[in-house]
Structure formats: structure tokens, C-alpha cells
Amino acid sequence: MSIFDSIESTSEYIPAAKPLIGDDERRAVDAVLRTGMLAQGPEVAAFEREFSTTLVPSRRSVAVNSGTSALHLALLGAGIGPGDDVIVPSFTFAASANAVALVGATPVFVDIDPVTYCMDPAAARAAVSPRTVAIMPVHLYGHPADMTAIGALADEYGLSVIEDAAQAHGARWQDRPVGAFGVAGAFSLYPTKNMTAGEGGMITVADDGLERRLKLYRNQGMERRYENEVVGFNMRMTDLHAAIGRVQLGKVRTWTAQRQANACYLSIEIDSVVTPTVASGAEHVFHQYVVRVPEDRDGIAKALELEWGIGTGVYYPVPVHRLPSFDRTCDLPETERAAAEVLALPVYPTLTKRQLDRVVEGVNRLARAGA
To answer: Residue 219 is part of a domain; what is its CATH number?
Structure first.
């Protein structure tokens, strides 16, 4: 008999992540369907207003069809293109660097802080060159980057800051929300994020001119039909997706508080591996709860799955600079170490006390035994 068979109530698999979609979201979608107006319309406009009010009050929001589109258009709207360098951490999802490449600029990969997993400001400073025009901090796993140091660096060298806040809805640095520091902030509304629209993205901006450019770019370059002012894309959000997002927006603060409570419980009870640290001045929203497993990370992940019925994730096993799409030679020791050691455990709001206890017991037993 395996440990899995001997643990009470392990017949219920605990996935690594779990989108939360209920009757409220279904009713909102049905209401849009009844109108017959499915493309970008009044729901999108309302979602944009409410997103700003709820999460980034000092900014206006522009809805698009994905988080990657949000990054892409933010860079394009900021005037970044061929011949420009953008400083980006390599320990992130490929979309961060992809967006830079898609506007014709060059991503310059830098190392991370080993505690927060976010961009190391000292590494970013060392990477500045005459070609550098922007810096893209990634608020990874829901922990904000050090925007004090990054902002000072940007001011010193005249760099634009484009925040990748894809995983960080509601995170704060020095009591200021992410998405409110740079020229633009980019959020993802993918199903597994802390809130979702089914799919979609949001760009937060302060400048009226940039807001208008982004709205042109997302809609084939036109504000009025058949009056195309620039070459643009079809990156609009639909009213169906916005309707889901509006409902989720009303729940995200409560869900975030539960994620934080779950993370706190895990950190108290797990004593066999290195648990997350929250930097002073940061509010972590725990999109992911990431521990470090220096020895046999993959073996422990497999054993959690097969013996304990617990799903996990590795974000990210291959740093972006080593992906075939970029294939750069870089000396990024903390990035390489994190890629070999990190393991994300379930932390979503609907986890029960019994499920959390199973995660704790599984991790502690396996790590102590060496899987």
C-alpha cells in the first residue's frame, strides 16, 4: 500500500491550479449573449473603468485579448522598436521577452534576486548600455519587484519602465499598486491567474496620448470605422470576456486574502524545504506559492503526484535565454539555480484545511526522506 492509499480523503486529486468559475460568471455571459452584442462594446468599457478603480486607481485601463498583447502594445505604444535594447529577467515566462522581440527590439537578459525571484536591480544597472531604452521588471509569482531601485535606475538613465504584472493583480510595493509605476503596466487574465476573463489582458497607463494609441493599435488602427489612422492589430477583448472579468473583479480581493492566508499556513507548517519570503515593503498576492527543493526537485514533484495526489508546477524549468527561440549565452547563476530548484504548490482560495494539511504532510515527508 502506498502512502497515497493510506491517507484519509486522498481520492480527491488536488490540482496545481484551479480556475474559479461559478454561476455569477455564467449569468453575466448569458446576459451578454441575450443582447446579441458580443464583440468589444459596453462591457469592455465598464471593465476598463472598474479595473482601474479596483486595482490601479491612479491609472486608466485598456483591455486587450491577452496578457502577451498587453505587453506587446505597451512596448509599441511607448515607441520601442528596432535598434533598442530592453532589460528583461530571464527567469520569467517567454511572453515577456517575446513581446520585446515582436516590436523589433532586443531583450537583454539579467539575473534575479534569489529571495523574491524578481529582477535584481544591480544586475539591471550593469546591463545598461547606450542602446538601452527601457526596463521590464516582472512581478513574478505575485511578488512585486523592487520598484524603488528600478525606478531610480530608470530615472538616472532616462529609461521607460514597462511593468509585467501578468501574475500580480493587487500586489503592492511600498503601499503603491503594481501597474502604477511605469509608462505602462501589463496584466494577464488567463484562466489560472488570480482573476480571469476566460482570456484577455489589461494595460494600465497614465498618459492620455498613450491610452489613445493603445486603443488604436488594438482595433486595426482606427477609432472610427474605416478611418484607419495607423497600422494596427485585431487585439480587442470581447464583451463576453469582459463580462466574466467584471464578475471576477468583484471577488479578487477576497480571493487574494485567502491565498495569502493559505500561503501563511503553508509557510508555518512546511519545515523541510525553503518557503517563500516576502520582502519588506511588499504585498505578495501569491499567484504561485513557490518553495525551493535543492535536491531531487523533479523526484519530489513526481512523488507528490503519484503517491499523494497533489499537483505541482515548475515555473520555469528553462530560463528564457536558453530557449531555442533566443539561445543566448548569459552568466545568470541565480536564474539557473532557481530553474533547477523551484516548485509551485497549490495555494488557490478554495483549498480546504484538509487539503492544505495533505500538501504539508506530503512535502515534509518526501523532502525529509529525499523522495
So the answer is: 3.40.640.10
